[in-house]
Design brief:
A hairpin with a 3-residue loop joins strand 22 and strand 23. The chain has three helices and 31 strands. It folds into two domains: 1-34, no CATH class; 38-450, Methylamine Dehydrogenase, Chain H, CATH 2.130.10. Helix 1 packs across helix 2 (17-24). It has helices spanning 3-11, 17-24, 367-371; strands at residues 44-47, 77-79, 88-95, 98-105, 109-116, 121-124, 139-146, 149-154, 158-163, 173-178, 205-211, 214-219, 222-227, 235-241, 250-261, 264-273, 285-292, 298-302, 304-305, 314-315, 329-336, 339-344, 348-353, 360-363, 381-387, 390-395, 398-403, 414-416, 428-435, 438-443, 446-450. The relative contact order is 0.13.
Length: 453
C-alpha cells in the first residue's frame, strides 16, 4: 500500500470505501513519508524490465471516421485501455506516436505509463523504485523531449530520468537525483485534498525543457538547469534562487514552466504569506512570473506581496501585477513568442502580452459562470492547453474549448463531450497534446485521446 495515500486518508474525510480500507491496513507504514533516503544527494541508477454531459456537442464537429471501431464520444474523444482500473492519471505528455503519463493508485502506488499509437494501449515502464519508503508524497509532472526519454518529479524533491535506446521497446534505464530545498526545509505547498479525487495539484516541483540538451527543473523557490544533459554525467545545477527568507510566514514557490523559444524560459509561481492560524497558505498568495533570457539572465516580470487576506497584492519594484486581487499562478502555457496563458488562483484564465514596452494582462470570462451558472461550488480549473489559436480548459469532469481570438472580448466557451456514453467519468486532471489532432484528457480511471480537430 502506497504510504502517500494513507496519509491523505487521514486528513480527508471522503467516506470512500477504498480510503477506509487503506487506513485500516496501514500498519506501521503511516510514517514512511517522514523518512528520507540516506543517499538523496547521489543519483541512483536502475534498470526496468459531477456527471458528464449527455448531449453537449462541438458545433460543426462530426465523429471521427473510426468512431464506430473505437469507444468514442460525439466530440471525438476516444477511451483508451488502461492496464489497471485503480489508476488516477495526474499528468500526460504527448510526442508523435507516443504519450507518457503519471498515475497514482491506492493499490499500486505511483506508476509511469507509455502509450503507443501502433499498439493502441498503455503499458507500465517504471522500475518500481518510486514506490520505496519515503517517496510519493506528491508528484511534480512529466515531460519528454522525444519518444525515448522522460523526466518526472516525485516527492520529497526528486527528479527521475528515464532513457532507452532508439527502437528498443522496453529497455528503459532509470536514474533519480535529489534537488536541494533552498527554502524552509521540507515545505511544499499543500495540494487540494486527496489526489485520487482532486484534479488540481500545483506542487512546487517539476521539470520542463525545449530539447534533450536544454532541460530545467524547479523545487520550492529554486530553478535548476541540467548541465551536460545528454552526456555521460549530467548534473542539476541551481541557477536561480528567489528571496530565500528566514521568515516563517513568507515563502516562494515555483509551480510551472513554459518556453517561447529555445533560448527563453518562463517560470510561474506564487509568493505566499501565512497570515494567521487556520488561513490557507495557498489562498494568501501573489502571482509570480520570472523570465530566463537566452543569455542566461533571470528577470522578475510579476511579483507582489500580500498585506492581508482581503487586500490586493502590493506590486514589488520593477514588476507588473497579474489580474486583480490575490492568487498565485499554478499553470503556464506559451501561445506565442510574446504571449503567455496562465491559471490564476485556480479560478481565472489570464493572458499576459509582453510585446512592446508596456506588458498587458487580460482576464478571460469565467468559464464556470458560463458552463455551470447554477453550481454553488464550481470546480477549480485544473489545466489549460493552447494549439492553433484554440484554448482548451479542464475543470471538474469537463473539458471546454474557446477561440483564442474572441474569448478575451467576451466570447463563449464551448463544452466538448468527453464521456463516451454520458456516464460519470470523474475529474479530468489534465488536457494536453502536441496539436489539436493529438489531444489527451486524463483523470480518474480514464484516458481519452482526440485525433480529430
Amino acid at each position: 500500500m502506497k504510504s502517500s495515500f494513507l496519509a491523505y486518508c487521514g486528513v480527508v474525510l471522503l467516506g470512500s470505501a477504498a480510503c477506509v480500507a487503506a487506513c485500516a491496513n496501514s500498519g506501521d507504514e503511516s510514517n514512511a513519508l517522514e523518512e528520507r533516503d540516506a543517499g538523496r544527494n547521489e543519483a541512483v541508477v536502475h534498470d526496468s524490465g459531477e456527471r458528464g454531459p449527455d448531449d453537449e456537442r462541438d458545433a460543426g464537429t462530426e465523429p471521427p471516421p473510426d468512431a464506430g471501431a473505437r469507444d468514442c464520444s460525439p466530440s471525438g474523444w476516444c477511451r483508451t485501455s488502461l492496464p489497471d482500473e485503480d489508476l488516477a492519471l495526474k499528468d500526460v505528455w504527448a510526442v508523435p506516436g507516443h504519450a507518457f503519463a503519471l498515475a497514482e493508485s491506492f493499490t499500486l502506488g505511483i506508476k509511469v505509463l507509455e502509450w503507443k499509437d501502433a499498439d493502441a494501449k498503455w503499458d507500465y515502464i517504471d522500475d518500481g523504485t518510486q514506490n520505496e519508503r519515503g517517496f510519493g508524497a506528491y508528484l511534480g509532472g512529466i515531460w519528454a523531449p522525444n519518444a525515448n526519454e522522460i523526466y518526472y518529479g516525485i516527492g520529497p524533491g526528486y527528479i527521475y530520468h528515464g532513457r532507452r535506446e532508439d527502437g528498443a521497446p522496453t529497455a528503459w534505464k532509470w536514474s533519480r537525483t535529489a534537488l536541494a530545498d533552498n527554502s524552509h526545509p521540507d515545505v511544499v505547498e499543500p495540494n487540494d485534498g486527496n489526489p485520487f479525487y482532486s484534479a488540481v495539484q500545483f506542487t512546487a516541483l517539476g521539470v520542463f525543457g525545449t530539447s534533450a540538451e536544454n532541460v530545467y527543473a524547479w523545487f520550492t523557490n529554486t530553478i535548476y538547469r541540467l548541465e551536460g544533459a545528454g552526456g555521460p554525467a549530467p548534473e542539476w545545477v541551481a541557477e536561480y534562487t528567489l528571496d530565500r527568507s528566514a521568515s516563517l510566514i513568507d515563502h516562494v514557490f515555483f509551480h510551472a514552466a513554459t518556453s517561447t523559444s529555445p533560448g527563453t524560459m518562463w517560470f510561474s509561481g506564487a509568493r505566499t504569506r501565512k497570515l494567521a492560524p487556520g488561513v490557507d497558505i495557498a489562498s494568501a498568495a501573489c502571482a509570480l512570473l520570472v523570465r530566463r533570457t537566452a543569455a542566461g539572465q533571470y528577470e522578475k516580470i510579476a511579483d507582489g506581496t500580500l498585506a492581508s487576506a482581503f487586500a490586493p497584492c502590493a506590486v514589488n519594484p520593477d514588476s507588473i501585477s497579474i489580474g486583480n486581487g490575490a492568487g498565485g499562478l499554478g499553470e503556464l502555457h506559451a501561445a506565442s513568442a510574446d504571449t503567455l496563458f496562465a491559471i490564476k488562483h485556480k479560478r481565472e484564465i489570464v493572458k499576459i502580452s509582453l510585446a512592446g514596452d508596456e506588458p498587458s494582462v487580460v482576464t478571460a470570462p469565467s468559464i464556470t459562470a458560463q458552463i455551470l451558472p447554477t453550481t454553488a461550488s464550481p470546480p477549480s480549473l485544473s489545466s489549460i492547453f493552447v494549439a492553433s489559436q484554440t484554448l482548451w480548459v479542464s475543470f471538474g469532469s469537463y473539458v471546454a474549448r474557446a477561440d483564442d481570438q474572441t474569448i478575451w472580448d467576451g466570447g463563449a466557451y464551448q463544452l466538448t463531450a468527453v464521456s463516451t456514453n454520458g456516464a460519470f467519468i470523474g475529474d479530468i486532471s489534465r488536457v494536453r497534446g502536441d496539436s489539436n489532432s493529438n489531444l489527451w484528457a486524463i483523470g480518474v480511471r480514464n484516458a481519452f485521446q482526440k485525433t480529430a480537430p
